[in-house]
Each structure stands twice: as structure tokens, then as C-alpha cells.
Predict the structure.
Amino acid sequence: MSYTNQITDSNMSASEPGEVSRKSDFLSLPPEIRNEIYSLLVVSPKPIRICSPRSKHQIKKTINPSNFCQLLCVNKQINAESAMMFYAVNTFTIGNGPFGSKSITNLHAFQAFIKRVPANHLGGIRRVDIELFTRRWTRSLNAFCFGTLTDAKDLHSIARTLTKHFKSLEVVNFSYEVDGPFWYGHQNWPRLTGAPLTRELTKILRTLLKNGTLVSIGAYSVGDVDMKAAVDEILKSTPAAEPILKILPLDP
């Protein structure tokens, strides 16, 4: 069901009783027309990356607020309608990068996002990209590894939170980012590979599958991160998950 079907004339009662006689011409438009106008202002051409919040000093340096932020300040009804669309139609990118980074997706940022965004808006989010931050342990471009068990625990936390709060989630796609150039010759550095890694990835995917609204989980394998092995492990016991779990081709 498209988002445009969710805002109906019943939403118009959201204004305060004393405001009825002062409704703007915009709010007298049919909901479908208002949605078309909102889409010009709130739909992001790229996924919205969830990084750690900036300091108050950095926020004050923002001179020109976005069209979306200005739209939220018009009145209560426009705020409610445009915010619902913003969270429902955009893709949000989260990840397990360096904790507290203001430019890279990370668990601290995701936790702050959950605390700040109202529950009904979190429940309207439909598309999420999850960035798995891997490490390159040799100079080979394909020698990616998952890092440590801590990295896996961070992803477990993200998967549990998505299942708990994102009640309308339909699509989750995994992507990969390299944290640092490479581990300068530390081929024996502790890292999660083989069966232990497959076991952790399987747990993460099983947690996501608990969300009954999901229609697609997309992932691909790279280096030591063998998502296909995790998917195959799940399908052994849960063949009904096959239409949801998809192994994506690598980008050319």
C-alpha cells in the first residue's frame, strides 16, 4: 500500500478546534494533492545516513534550515502530515562504524535516533540500509574480515531495535564499508571468520525475520563475510524465508 493512501480527510481534524475557521487554502486541498506537494520537499534523493548528533555549537553554524525543517514549523497539521511522509518514504542508513562518529553511521547515532524520533514515526519507517564496517587485514582488495565479536554484538543490537520499533519495516539491505586502509600485516589479528562468523550472521538475520512486515532482506558476500552461508543455514530450518532472503550480485 502506497503512503499516499494513508493521509485521508480524517487527518484534517488534527487542527485545534479554534483553528478551523482559519485553515489555509493549502489544507483545504484533497489529501492526494497535499501529498504530491509534500513529496517535493521531504523525499531525499539519497539514503539518509544516521550519524552521531552534532554539538550545539556546530548546530548554531547552520545558516539555512532545510525546506523540510521549515515545513514542520507551519502548523500542527502540516507538521504531522509531512513528518509521517518523511519517515515513510525515505531510506535510512544505519551501521556499526566508529562509536560517536559524526560522519560515519554507528550504534551511538542509532541509539540517539531512537530516543529523539517519536514512536509513531519510527513505526512508519519502511526501508533501512545497514552498513557492515569490515576491516581489510592484508593489502588485497578482497581480504575483508568482520572484525571481532563486538562488531557482531553491535549488529545484534541494531537488529533487535529494528524488530522492536520499526513496525512497518519492509526492506532491509546490507552493504559493506571498510574501516581503515588495512591492518598493516596483522594477518594473525583476532577476527571473526568461518563457522563462528556464519553463526553470528545467522543470529542477526533470524532476529530481523521476526519482523512480520518484512518482504525483503538483501545482502551479498565479500571477502570473509559470507552472507550466503548464513542464508543457507537459515533456509535449512526455515524454507518459508526463501522469498524474503536475497543474495544480491556484487556491484560491477
